Amino acid sequence: MRARLGVVALLFALAGVGWWWTADQMQGMDNGPWTGLGGLGWFLGVWIVMMAAMMLPSVAPTVALYSRLTRQRSPLSPLLFAGGYLLVWAGAGLVAFAIGAALNSISGDLLAWDRAGRWAAGATLVVAAVYELTPLKDVCLGKCRSPLGALLGSWRDGRRGALGMGARNGAWCVGCCWALMASLFALGIMSVVWMAVVAGLIAFEKTVPWRRVASLGTAALLLGIGVLLLAAPTAIPGLTTPRSAPMQGMASMRS
Q1: Is the confidence at residue 242, as pLDDT, over 50?
Q2: SS (H, E, C) the chain
Q3: Which domain holds residue 12?
Q4: pLDDT per residue over 5-60, tens digit each?
Q5: CB-based burial label for 188 (10 Å; 0-12, 13-18, 19+)
Q6: Which of 60, 136, 155, 236 suits 219 as a labelling partner, its CA being 20 to 30 A distant?
Q7: Which residues 6+ apart lie within 8 Å of 168 measured at CB?
Q8: Has residue 171 been placed in a domain?
Q9: Nearest to 47, CA basis, from 101, 92, 103, 16
């Protein structure tokens, strides 16, 4: 029990460090919806730390459950599980960067705030709200909320097994949360405020006892923000209006 509590405390501590480091790195960089992503190396580093900050608290109970079930009482196995989980989110970050780079190359300034950017951001929030109500979202959220069956159904011993099981759990989490992450890009990927909002929604969905109520509440909030983005963006607290075309300066930002 002490070992499991120690693992949970360590994950929360790592998340706290991630929040501190991310807030420091993002200071003054929020350019609102479709903020430029910078160079690949810099973005990927910041993305991994962001995922550690946002996701480790909500996955900590699953890591503790894995630690309880495993026969290897080594603190390394739960950490490898968490590492596999973050590895999958790193892959999701690479996909997001590739999509952003492709859009930047193809569309030029089409997604500028004063052109299609505002409408694309609002539409992204509306799509994310709709996804909250789909069967796929419900299945993925169920795996995240009740991981025991998923863990036992794909059990692998050893360190490689810990890494693989963490990656599998991360894949379910990506399936559950990709639309919320897309919403973060639409609201401002370099905004600590919106990062905290999305992290709070993820934790809310995974922890409250009423799963359907959580999904409906999240969908309603996303839909409301999406409609405001389309109709009255200045009414949204914490939203930064872009000062320039989106996704520009990708090579000139930190590397």
Answers
A1: yes
A2: CHHHHHHHHHHHHHHHHHHHHHHHHHCCCCCCCCCCCCCHHHHHHHHHHHHHHHHHHHHHHHHHHHHHHCCCCCCHHHHHHHHHHHHHHHHHHHHHHHHHHHHHHHHCCCCCHHHHHHHHHHHHHHHHHHHCCCHHHHHHHHHHHCHHHHHHHCCCCHHHHHHHHHHHHHHHHHHHHHHHHHHHHHHCCCCHHHHHHHHHHHHHHHHCCCHHHHHHHHHHHHHHHHHHHHHCHHHCCCCCCCCCCCCCCCCCCCC
A3: 2-234
A4: 788 888 999 999 999 999 888 888 888 888 888 889 989 999 999 999 999 998 99
A5: buried
A6: 60
A7: 84, 150, 154
A8: yes
A9: 92
Nearest Cα neighbor of 129 from 42, 17, 229 is 229
Other Cβ atoms less than 10 A from the Cβ of 84: the count is 21
Count structural domains, the chain. 1
Query: What are the pLDDT digits (tens) for 201-222?
Result: 999 998 888 888 899 999 999 9
pLDDT score at 6:
80
Does 239 fall in a domain? no
CB atoms within 10 A of CB 249: 14
Q: Which pLDDT tens digit goes with each residue over 106-131?
A: 776 777 788 888 899 999 999 999 99
Q: Is residue 248 part of a domain?
A: no
- Asked, for residue 241, whether it belongs to a domain, the answer is no
The answer to whether 195 and 19 have CB atoms below 8 angstroms apart is no
Token look-up 């960067």 returns: 97
Spatial separation of the C-alpha atoms in residues 127 and 219, rounded to whole Å: 10
